[in-house]
Design a protein that fits this description.
single chain, 93 residues, mainly alpha
C-alpha cells in the first residue's frame, strides 16, 4: 500500500537546502589552511570532543535528508526566509 507520504516525499527533503552551502565549501576548499596547520590547530582540543563534534555533525547532516520539505503554512515560509537569510550571511562571511 503506497500513500502520498511514501519515500517519494523525501526526494524533496530539507537536505537539499544544504547543497548550495556544500557547493560553496567545495569551491573554496583550496583556500583552507593546509593539513599540517589543522593538526597544530586541533592539538589543544581534547580528542573526545573532536569525536563527538564529528559524530553530531554527521548525524545532523544525515537527518536533514530525512525531513520532507514542504511549504504549506506561513510558518514554513517564514522558516525558509530565515534559513535563506542565514545562508546568505554564511556566504558573505
Amino acid at each position: 500500500m503506497t500513500t502520498s507520504y511514501g519515500y517519494s516525499r523525501y526526494a524533496r527533503s530539507c537536505g537539499l537546502l544544504l547543497l548550495p552551502a556544500i557547493a560553496w565549501n567545495v569551491a573554496f576548499a583550496g583556500t583552507l589552511m593546509p593539513a599540517p596547520a589543522m593538526t597544530e590547530f586541533r592539538r589543544s582540543i581534547p580528542t573526545p570532543l573532536v569525536f563527538v563534534e564529528n559524530v553530531l555533525r554527521a548525524l545532523v547532516f544525515r537527518l536533514s535528508f530525512a525531513i520532507p520539505f514542504r511549504m504549506t503554512t506561513q510558518r514554513d515560509r517564514r522558516a525558509l526566509a530565515i534559513f535563506v537569510l542565514g545562508t546568505l550571511v554564511y556566504f558573505t562571511s
